[in-house]
Every structure is written in C-alpha cells, then in structure tokens.
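Retro notes, item 3 of 5
We never archived the inputs for the nickel (II) ion complex last cycle. Fixing that now. Sequence and ligand:
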Amino acid sequence: MILHIPGVLTRDEVADFRARLLAAEWVDGRATAGPQSALVKANLQLSVAAPEAAALGGEILDRLGRHQAFIAAALPARVVPPLFNRYEAGMGFGDHIDNAIRFDVSGGRRYRTDLSATLFLSDPDDYDGGELRIEDGVGHRSVKLPAGDLALYPATTVHHVTPVTRGVRLASFFWVQSMVRAPDQRQVLRDLDRGVIDIRGALGDDHPAVVRLTGVYHNLLRQWAEA
Ligand code: NI
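Structure as it came back at the time:
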C-alpha cells in the first residue's frame, strides 16, 4: 500500500530547507546506487558527508519521531539517515528496486529496508515531470505530493521517477526498518489503530470496548514486533 503522510514539514520549514539545500554542494547521484540502479539513475544528490545532509536529516528524523500518522503506519524500529536528491530538466531515475540492506557508514549500522520514503520539498507547480511512479500490482501509481508531505511505500516494489521537463524537483529520501516486518501485519495494525481512534471519539476513552480493543492492538503488536 502506498501511503500519503501529510505535514511532516510546515510551509516555513520547507522554505528553510530549500534555501539551505540550494546553497549546498551537489554530486552525481550514482554515488549511492547499486550496480543495476546506477545504469538508470540520472540525478544529483547531496554528498553524504555534506554538513547540510546531517543537519537537515536530523531535523527530519526529529519531526518523524513526533508524527503520529507516520509512527502508526510505519511502526519504525529505526530510520536510515535521510538523503537528499535534486532533479533538473532532463534528469530522471528508471525502474529499479531499492537495496534490501543499507549500511550507514557514519553510524556503523545496518538497516533492513522495509519501507521506502520520499519527502517532497518542491511543490508540484514548481516542476513538470518528476513523478514517482510505483508498481502496485495493477499498474503504476503516480505520486507527486505537496512540499512537506511524505510518500511511504513498500521497499519491495519496482518504481521510477519520470524525467523532469521543467524546473527543479528537490526531495529527501530514506528507508524505514519496521518493528513489524510483514506488510499485511502492519496493515492490520494500522486499520485497528484507526478504528480504535474512531470509537474513542464516539464512545469516550474509558468505554469498555475502547479498553478491550486498545488491548487487542497492543497484544497483536507484542506478538508481531521485533523491538
Ligand atoms: Ni528507489
């Protein structure tokens, strides 16, 4: 399932991010690609060693750690330090699947990539093309979100970014290792979480049905989570 998580960054935060990113030094995006994806990747990335990458990535991790919709959907065990990319006219990224394991050199950690995430930092009106297209079993879903919003999708899917034909597309991208590895189990927990929120609103926090179903949520999470 492809999820739209709105409002990870505010409008003011997006403007601040854009100003700092546009002043930073960009390198060829193939620096972090595997051998297959390097063949189809044509974009620019902020160097992993760039001070802006660590600073802005840390701010994104901070926002995600407090974003209830993200936490409920991803059930994150840990999040790979965010990277940043930039597509100018003529740049795109052909079909690929993200690497299963990411190694963060700075933190010396390995991550299993259960979910892929794109945080849009340019508004759809600022560029043409540059759509994230994700295979969903029926066909392709096109994703082009407002700046500050996050697309979260299974890292198991083939996806590509169509060539930008006008303007500049800035984004952050990263991966989530989830406490709950199986997508169908994450989906059950997310549906149950939303249902519990609805009945809390209708019946009140202390209604026996709310207490019981909240318990079911936590008992399923206890069975399925690797903490
Ligand atoms: Ni990708």
